[in-house]
Amino acid sequence: MQMSTLVESLQESLSTSQVSTNDTARELHSKDESYHPPVTPEVVVYPYDAQDISEIMKTAKQFHRSVYPFGLGSSLEGHVIPTEDGISIDFSEMNRIIEVKEQDLLVKVQPGVTRTQLNKELKKYGLFFTVDPGADATIGGMAATNASGTSSVRYGIMRDQVRDLEVVLADGSIMHTGNLAAKSSSGYNLNGLFIGSEGTLGCFTELTLNVHGIPEHIVAGRAVFPTIDKAVEAVVSTLHAGVPIARCELVDEPSVKKANEFSDTNYPIQPTLFLEFHGNEAGLNQDLEFMKEIIKDHGCKKIEFEQDNAARNKLWEARHNLAYAYVHGAPGKKMMVTDVCVPISELAEAIKHARKVVDASMFEGGIAGHVGDGNYHIILMFDSSSNEEIQAAAKLNEEIVKYALAVGGTCTGEHGVGLGKQKYQAEEHGESLFVMEKIKQALDPESRLNPFKLVQLKE
Amino acid sequence: MQMSTLVESLQESLSTSQVSTNDTARELHSKDESYHPPVTPEVVVYPYDAQDISEIMKTAKQFHRSVYPFGLGSSLEGHVIPTEDGISIDFSEMNRIIEVKEQDLLVKVQPGVTRTQLNKELKKYGLFFTVDPGADATIGGMAATNASGTSSVRYGIMRDQVRDLEVVLADGSIMHTGNLAAKSSSGYNLNGLFIGSEGTLGCFTELTLNVHGIPEHIVAGRAVFPTIDKAVEAVVSTLHAGVPIARCELVDEPSVKKANEFSDTNYPIQPTLFLEFHGNEAGLNQDLEFMKEIIKDHGCKKIEFEQDNAARNKLWEARHNLAYAYVHGAPGKKMMVTDVCVPISELAEAIKHARKVVDASMFEGGIAGHVGDGNYHIILMFDSSSNEEIQAAAKLNEEIVKYALAVGGTCTGEHGVGLGKQKYQAEEHGESLFVMEKIKQALDPESRLNPFKLVQLKE
């Protein structure tokens, strides 16, 4: 009997058209939007369903290969980049919205569905999916990294939205992590464990998510502050007063400038909070009046409300395209985005520190972020052909991470560990990293699932 | 060298006063509020801190004993009952509120702190802890069972409130599961995994919890319906309309009667929703008007608002004491409470089914529950000296569970698995039960931590 190759075996268990060794396809699956150097996978597969993925897992085991789930490649820490010879699993053929369960405020989707695709469908029902990381990522990718974004201050992060996952494990078995009830005290919380596991424990093949009714009333606006500290203090006071902000984004001076250039807006070039409120009209008006009082005390001279839907959409487009604005403004350079999250009480000092670190560096660097959660980013453009710049950018990132850890924060608020934050896991988690390793060891003993990401098993 | 006994060793590593083999103490730690038969522990220990618990773990290992964490014994599925010779760990000496981090809306407590103790302290800061299971349970116990209760429809369950846990593992090592940031994508979600693990993966020694500002405006009331179905349909419609209800409790006719008798109220004896709303005054009034319209369409003839704080407190006291009202009305009998949770779209039918099952049984049985979450209870009093009644009660419970599982629900919405729901774990979780077993095996390979609860390792 002739032994078949890896590719032949994959073609046999899937179909020829679902398996590609084409150079373009492989190159496309070698990288994400991060600065981490690309590594080309041996082969790219395009599964249709859980059964296909189960077969891929079995073939991977038989041929001693690793698997690397790939959504749209919008990850920011190298999550999808192969670390050794292996199989890139592309979910683009698994992009069906399976069922909108309107009465339960649930939707069941395949992992390759994108955020905007989902919201377009949900709009027909007067519903929306709350998690908005800016990028039009896949739902599977957002679940794998526990994404969040602008509206998480009000509605929670990806982990809060998942009612059930269908998962294919390393051994090819297929299981569900949850059920359809709004709450449960039955068994260990596998939903929560798998969300944010970055493809290291299993592959998601179906996700059942909470959705919300589109709010009756939405108001967005911009509040301008004399300094970045004052803006941050205003957010902290507002949160503490219990005003339910739906989005609350800090954009510093250089970033407002970049946004104006890229998005053709004309916002005042000052530290600004981009804000949004959801609710019923009466309650919202009362909240807005209250908030205006609060932020006035922190030096806000002006809060400007967007007058129509188009202006509101423009505002969030400008915010969401900020990273692209930086990329666009620095052709040929690579982007590095820090992603720490600190306790709210530490936020004002942390951002002051961040500004100092940037000013002392060789980079321009803008600060922006979801300050209602204590999560902020420094966006840096660096020359990846210059060793000096690579090292300086890495040093800056490290300085920001160390500061966040020292004040009780985390090295990544929403981008995930991937390759870039691996080195901070021991410092951040201490003893609990051993528990994470034991879990990885128990579920993926041969470390075949996205190896070297998140936790790294000793050989 | 003389070998010391288990008790001597415990006395040595803790202190004499922290170790008791007194019959009364042991009897007190042999049971909870459930119908499960008591089993007496060999010894009861009263640790002061994590270090004490670490010592207890090491001694337990040395003497091949199991450990059974014990809060106040208010669990409803036998969670604290020893299943073999072992050590009951009583947390009553670990009842300090360590720190209120006002600006972060966080509080750090020891596990023996009770819910009312915590809220009394938080009130000084204008804050409150949202999870309210009715019973004045310990925070540690509530975390161990992933408790929820009346206000979870608005604020979420216990798992949603935990920012960080200090945990002592089976080997005596001490770790933290989280950090102080509002969100994180770093590492596996150990917070979520340990919450609801029922003492089977480790002992909590410190908990950092989210707290909320006391709402500006609170309105409570009772809405009376011609039938229980109509009441449930009204809840489903209200939720779907996006009205943010803070509490939403269904109490059926027999239960209103019991409440009136026990709590000296005079509520109309009809299927009733006990309701509460939190918000700013303007928003809340608009919500109330909207809700009144909705529930009128479902046959609600009257919604009566409580006019002052005393009447509001009375309302919730009556609801929370409902279980005790049943116990009080059936001296000598034991209580069994079902605890399924179903998808909201299935709730009306499920409660109709529950009523039929009760009517066909030999028991009276009241239905009450947190219907905003799809979680409802049948409260049954049965004679635990009668085999016939024991079997009939167990059969009824099973019928309710099987129904819930068949419609995508869970066998326990908030009470936990303990001893009583162990037998449904395979049916509910399918393949994922193997993953739970692997996790238990990885973290507690000798099955020393609350063995035979939640998952049961094969010998």
TrEMBL record, chains A, B:
Residues 24-35 have a biased composition (Basic and acidic residues). Its EC number is 1.1.2.4. It comes from the Bacteria. InterPro entries: FAD-bd_oxidored_4_C, FAD-bd_PCMH, FAD-bd_PCMH-like_sf, FAD-bd_PCMH_sub2, FAD-linked_Oxase-like_C, Oxid_FAD_bind_N, Vanillyl_alc_oxidase_C-sub2. Residues 1-36 are annotated as: Disordered. Residues 1-23 have a biased composition (Polar residues). It holds the Pfam family FAD_binding_4. Its cofactor is FAD. Residues 36-214 form the FAD-binding PCMH-type domain. GO terms for molecular function: D-lactate dehydrogenase (cytochrome) activity; D-lactate dehydrogenase (NAD+) activity; FAD binding. GO terms for biological process: lactate catabolic process. Keywords: FAD, Flavoprotein, Oxidoreductase, Transit peptide. SUPFAM superfamilies: FAD-binding/transporter-associated domain-like (SSF56176), FAD-linked oxidases, C-terminal domain (SSF55103). Belongs to the FAD-binding oxidoreductase/transferase type 4 family. This is D-lactate dehydrogenase (cytochrome). It comes from Salicibibacter cibi.
